[in-house]
Amino acid sequence: MTKSKGKIKLSTWMIIASALGIICGLLFGKSMGNIKFLGDIFLRLMQMSVVFLVMGAITEAIGSLDMHDIGKLGGKTIALFVASTLFASFVGVILSLIIKPGVGVTGVEGAAFTGTLPEGNPLNLLVNFFPKNIVESMSTGSILQIIVFSIFLGLALSMLKGNSSAQAVFGFIKDFNVIIMQIVKIVMNFAPIGIFALVAALTGTSGVNMLMALGKFLIALTVGCIAVLLLMVGIVSAYGRLNPYRLLKKLNNTIIVAITTTSSAVSLPVQMEDSELRIGVSRRVSRLVNPLGMNLNSHGLAITVAVACITVAQFFGIEMNFTNYIMIGVMSTLATFANLAVPGGALVTMAIGFSMTGLPLEGVAIMAGVDWFAGIIRTLLNVVDDVLIAVIVAISENELDRDIFNSDESPKAETAA
Q1: Which conformational region is residue 115 in: left (phi greater than 0), alpha (psi within -120 to 50 degrees), or beta?
Q2: Number of domains in the chain
């Protein structure tokens, strides 16, 4: 849904739809189950393009990298992205097990889980990450195997940048992604209807218990994001021998824009300006790490997906073991690599995470009502941690200007737009 003056945003419609669904569910009870089919249609439409969406987004992101130019710097950056996002995911898993946001909800057995959670020997699970037939993986919706293939496809296209045939394929993928993204936007326009139907049906069955689960979900997410943010600030400050208070103060513009816009894309120019003109990160590092981080480094989204997966599992009474929790942490990380700049993109990423872990997609509707609130804290962590990773890379490359960092005034320079 395109933003325009005077038009209500999609996120607002989703909040309204969730509120109306809760009210109607409480008023009319189990009879609201009769409209659940509308929500089921919406969930099927969300699943419809997931395979192409994930494959296209990851292939384009990896394929657009210039391996010859970024070399060691790019490898170091991506390694930090993966390690820190994986850490954030497991923070979400641990907090979910402590706070237990979905525990105590009764009356939802009718929507019980019928899928299959990944289980078995960890080494066998690792082997199953890799596809033996990508067409079979696509037909069965094996998202994890599709991600692995997409990474290899993106790497191959990146290495063949001088090959005209490879560039033609890459151009086709980029154009195809535009079409798939448009399909997602069309489907998301029906999100308020689907969310209303699913929330009304769930609330009619579970009553006010669902509201308690949503509140605890937000608490777990907020605590997780704040914990990871403070840990990252502490790590960066210790590694670079920087004043943590000054570091946070230098990030106040980025923090304000992230909170008020809940958009990583809108925050990017401000991130780069804070990185270069206020903290002292070199242009070479800042202009590689920050734009790349917008697509490949989403700590807040990783925590959101991890907490959402365990909340939904608890909500529907799905028993999980240690291996399942490990898989949720890993898959929450992988799901963020297909980070989508579309309205309701976090919900689509959640759907990808649920598909990867075998959890019921009805969970998307449960989370939709509070996604705008979740987006505030999620975006804050996403964008601030991009800058912090840039600082780590700059320190490791001896490209942090400490005079700028220690200065109370930003030097006169061209805006890092």
Answers
A1: beta
A2: 1
